[in-house]
Amino acid sequence: MSPARSDATATLRGSAVGALSAGLAVAAHGAGGGGFPASAALTLLLFACCGVGAITANVPARFHSKSALLGALGLGQVAGHLTLTATAHVHAAIPAAAMLLAHAAATVVCALLIASAEQLYRSLVHVWRVVLRGEPRPVAVDAAPHHPAPRENPIDALLRASISRRGPPVLV
């Protein structure tokens, strides 16, 4: 039985970390001079990055921070690099400076993208839930429009106040 997650973005975070770790490991290796892997290496890379994404998705919500996201993406980059190195790959286990910089830049950029996507996802899910649930919203009551009385002549007002409206009794 899986523990209940209080964060609605846990699945999004795990999926994004797994997918971006795999894609960026290949891209960073290519940009860093490591070449592009064959299909067997890609298969192992996908399994490793799916594992990293699953672990990230099941981390309790109290550990969801930007530093934890950077750590998960860094773990994904390390897992991707080690997986690509373990297969018939061209370079040594310790990457060159250009490849390290490519991995680091990819990790930081992806962390920013995932954090932004989580924020957008939270906002959209909140709006969607409010719309679907039909939660009561405060209703603005429009008061009757106020029509100012026309400006009167002060003499007319004085005459109207001095004239009695009471008349003699009517005979029946």
Automatic annotation (TrEMBL):
Transmembrane annotation, as ranges: 40-61, 68-86, 92-115
KW Transmembrane (keyword) present: yes
Keywords annotated in UniProt: Membrane, Transmembrane, Transmembrane helix
Name of the protein in question: Uncharacterized protein
Origin species: Rhodococcus tibetensis
